Amino acid sequence: MCLAVAFLSVTSWAVTALAASDDPVDAGGLAMPGASAPAPTPLVVHALNQGTAPAYVLKVLKLALDKSGRPYVLKVDTHTLPTTQVLRLLEQPDNGTVDVYWLPTAPALEAHFQPVRVPLDRGLMGYRLLAVNEAAQAKISAGTPLSLAQGPGWPEAHLLRAAGQTVHETAGNLYNEVATGGADAVPRSSLDIDQEVERANEAGVPVTVARDIALLYRDFYLYFFVAKHNDRLADMLQDGLYQAYADGSFMALFRNDPQIRAALAYTHQGRRVLALPNPDATTPTRAIAASLTESLE
Fold first, then answer.
1. Signal peptide position in this chain (predicted)?
2. What is the pLDDT of residues 54-112, one digit of tens each?
3. What dihedral do alpha carbons 177, 181, 185, 191 form, nearest 10°?
4. Which CATH number fits domain 125-217: 3.40.190.10, 3.30.200.20, 3.20.20.60, 1.10.3880.10?
5. Which residues contact 144 (CB under 8 A, 6 or more apart)?
């Protein structure tokens, strides 16, 4: 009888002590019912409101982070920085300015940073309209080859030369170069050309969008890039983008964005499309699934 009382007393003490403990793990190493792990710390993501189609891409960025299902805080800085400075910052951990940036992919970028291989533009960056002067429009109608203006060292200059195009590189304003006859045309993305031509015209530079022809750079996509060390953010973005495709939210955003709609409208205006291979495209970029791109040829 005394032994039974003693056993009950010890058992009661053990249960009381365990119930009062803040430790959710019992003496056997098992989690107590109702205990929960601490919430993960939100990832702070810094981005810049600049670059190609920033209003659209920032919406895609937020969508991807939301769909990742993981906590985050997105901070967008409105300061405009040169791309070279952005890339230097992107390499530095915890720089407090930029953790993710978007650019047309190139081998050097894929070597120095982590690309998230889901095209944000579905290939629209590769659909190039020509900003031309009046004489160039006549050359196009006559089938005369054009000289194409490019900035110094631009990756697409190599693509154009490899396809047999005449390239004129200049450090000056490309639209001025075209307007003054230094080059016949400058190929620009359908995402950018409207605003650029409008600004040029407002500045008194007489250029227009060629009516009859467009170029298509194959395997030329707009990617998110993050630092090599930033696996957590890279995984969140990739998982979130795939989830957004799976539930239809990516395509809903893409189809309804005003800038995307304007860019897509150019692809349905009856222009002859000259498709050019991208000799610099990496093997993983060439392997992008057709379901992640638009049919633009």
1. 1-19
2. 999 999 999 999 999 999 999 999 989 999 999 999 999 889 999 999 999 999 999 99
3. 40
4. 3.40.190.10
5. none
